[in-house]
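Bit of a strange request maybe. I'm writing a small parser for structure token strings and I need a real example to test against, not something I typed by hand. Could someone generate the tokens for this chain?
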Amino acid sequence: MYACFCSLLFFIMLQVYLVLADHPGFSVTAALWISGGNCVILFLFAAYLAIKNAYELKGKLSMISTFIGNLRSGRFPGKITNEANDEISRIIYEINLLSDHIQNQVQSLQKLADEKSLLAQQAHSAAVMEERQRIARDLHDAVSQQLFALNMMSAAACKTLEHSPQAAKIQLEQISGISVKALGEMRALLLHLRPVELQEDSLCDGIIKLLKELKTKTSLQFQASIDEVDGLTKSAEEHLFRIVQEAVSNVMRHAEASKIKVELREEGEFIYLYISDNGKGFDPLDVKMVSYGIKSMEERCKEIGGVFQIRSKDREGTYIDIKVPPAGRE
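Reply from user aminoacidic:
Good idea to test on real output. This should exercise your parser:
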């Protein structure tokens, strides 16, 4: 098109020149031949430029495509070099900036991954240390004191047995009661150290297995009503199972109860978990009486979007009510 336009312009200018110069020797046919030859030359030149530009454009596009493929594969081959000043050059410039940005992002992600791994290790170490301190504190506050009392009372009973058998009998009965309580404390601690896992069991089956195992190892009476529930994620089932473990452990260690009641049911839009005992109870408003286990149960309940309520009175037992929405409901 550029060649044709130039040829037409040349033909018009040539005719105007012939008319103004009054050269009768130049005819219209000669002018057409001259214009046609000029058109062919210009067309060939235009075709050459078009082919040259097409090859250059194809090379640049191929280079850009290869560079983007390397970026997508996670390889950073440097930058695309280009000294021209056209639209493709501006695209290459932006791609180079994008490559730099991606490299910076990769470095940032690697740094975050390292920091996350370090924080996870620190959190794990802190959790292990905290659990060790808690178990050591529980052993010192409960079991070690009870064992010390057993030692003192047994020594006193040996001295009293010869001259006062009746008093020695009372002391032996007290020793028996303290030993039963210490045994319950140790079993509760072992329940924390060796927790039963859900594995492939459902929440219903896991709770039933836990209660059956505890029934054979303790003197507690268990009253259970466990229904199959649907709509809970595996994480939610794990949290509810751990709450049951924690609640039973607290009863064994602190409540001095003889009966534990556990109910699990789905009713309406919620899943309900109910745990109660007939123990000595406590004041929930007393900060000193609120144990680590109760806080742990409340935190687990909140993590799965549930509502945690605890009611207790002195000598009237403790009652835990948990309401959890199934997955997909608020």
